[in-house]
User: What shape does this take?
Amino acid sequence: MSALLEILLLRHGQSLGNEEGRFGGHGPTPLSATGRIQAEATARALAREGGLTAILSSDLPRAIQTAHPVSQATGVDIVTTPELRERSVGIFTGLTFAEAADRHPEAYQAMMRRDPNACPPEGETQWQCASRANACFERALLRHPSGRILFVSHAFTLNLLLRRIFNLQDSEFFQTDNCALHRLKRRRDGGWTVVALNDRAHLVDLHEPVEEY
Assistant: This one.
């Protein structure tokens, strides 16, 4: 069956928080120099592919700074929303992993185990993050039943969204590198075809990304 809609899920470029090994969460960390280069390379690649219908982005600086060059290259405006933010990690925000482990060892270990019931103090659960991201996704599908939509978000949020799309268990985890793309096509029967996961072909000549929670 032919595809009605193509979905592109893009993680932001490397942030200063990524570079320094810090929890990003809802913090205002911007892109690093490497992240800006990754965003520009992604924009060039998507412009060559052409045909974006909409760009929806997290309203956090690192996501907007990633979406901006894509918007400029394609001529499609960015719609920002807090629903696509990374999971809030509360009191861990801005801390290095070592600092978080030292100051809040029990909460840190629960996060590192990816316990689905864990909630960092002043943060949010996986369910809360997944619910808001999924609500944004579903509204976008209703608004754009055909075309090509780019979602610019964050590693853990995109992982939770993919779990919802494919009805997977909490233990499933998708690798999502900085400025990597997950590419999906919706079929006429309502199902999804996976075109690519963690696509980094447009970044092959750039520096390797740094992991983020």
In short: The chain has a mean pLDDT of 93. The CA atoms of residues 159 and 174 lie 6 Å apart.
